[in-house]
Amino acid sequence: MKSALEVSASERSRGIRAVCLDIDDTLLDSRGSARRAFASLTGNDAAWPVWRRITDEYNARMMAGEIDFETMCRSRTRDFFAAFGERLSEDEVLAREQRRMVALRDSWELFEDVTGCLEWLRASGLRVAAITNAPGGYQRHKLAVTGLAATFDVTVISGECGVAKPSSGIFAAACDALGLSAAEVAHVGNNLEIDANGAACAGMHGIWLDRESGGSTSSAAPVDGVSVITSLYELPEVLVCDLPFGGADDGLPARQVSMAGSA
Asked: Known PANTHER family for this protein (predicted)?
């Protein structure tokens, strides 16, 4: 895939024809769901920071291909309780992890700005895709449970294509599946480094969904050309006013396409 610097003026003039979206903590309140499931397992969420630290450590190993998803889940549960002096048998680890997973799936929910945004993208004639770092089976089950499975023209999952964000390979796979050049595609995600910056470096239009409104602890800064929004209500205006929009209504004024205040 071409880098942002290699994209020609003629390619850029084609306009945005598709929007790719991250799933977890972009469309789905995954962290909120995970915290509620954690509280159901332990009785409260006082030790949530410890759980998050262990999760981050094992998730990095999973993304690097060192361990699979099931091993990550069991190892995290075992190490969390061990940190508080409780040594669990493998059977008990499995039982507690299964209990947590049931609670997690029962609490999956979309952010309130998601449905209207997806409807606007479709009505505007844009193609819609998902790019997500996760195991394939687990993520497709999540999309089905939350009603998102039929939403996307293309779904690219790291566990299925063998490469994860921010690698340009996964963004290239999405563009190839859409039949579009990188310059014709925008990617929206809540993680600045792996979503927005990764997409921009791959030649796409990166859009950072900063739901924490500056509360991120990351030291990274947006690379040149990355747009920043704080909710999906702001996405239509960015696509129409700030980027070379290629949807069905190129000349539509921003006030007519903005979702702001529609909730």
From this structure: 5-AMINO-6-(5-PHOSPHO-D-RIBITYLAMINO)URACIL PHOSPHATASE YIGB, N-ACYLNEURAMINATE-9-PHOSPHATASE
- What lies within 8 Å, CB to CB, of 87 at 6+ separation is 81
Nearest to 260 by CA among 226, 215, 230: 230
Q: Which fold has domain 4-29+109-257?
A: Rossmann fold (3.40.50)
Q: At what angle do helices 48-63 and 69-83 cross, to 10 degrees?
A: 150
Residue stretches of the chain with pLDDT short of 70:
1-14, 214-218, 246-263
Which among 226, 179, 220, 217 has a CA at the least distance from the CA of 199? 226
Residues in CB range of 189: below 8 A, 6 or more apart: 21, 22, 26, 131, 165, 195, 196, 199, 207, 208, 209
Sequence letter at residue 2: K
Structural contact between residues 126 and 19, judged by C-beta atoms closer than 8 angstroms: yes
Amino acid, res. 126: L
Question: What whole-number distance in Å separates Cα of residue 126 and Cα of residue 204?
Answer: 15
Task: Annotate 187-243 with three-state secondary structure.
Answer: EEECCHHHHHHHHHHCCCEEEEECCCCCCCCCCCCCCCCCEEECCHHHHHHHHHHHC
Taking CA 118 as the corner, what is the angle to CA 152 and CA 36, rounded to the nearest 5 degrees? 90
Q: 166 preceded by cis ω (within 30°)? A: yes
Q: Which residue has the tokens 């969390």?
A: 80
- Helix axes 48-63 and 30-42, enclosed angle (nearest 10): 120
Chain center to CA of 15: 23
Instruction: Compute the residue count for the chain.
Output: 263
Q: Rounded to an integer, what distance in angstroms lies between the CA atom of residue 27 and that of residue 117?
A: 10
Token readout for 49 is: 């920071």
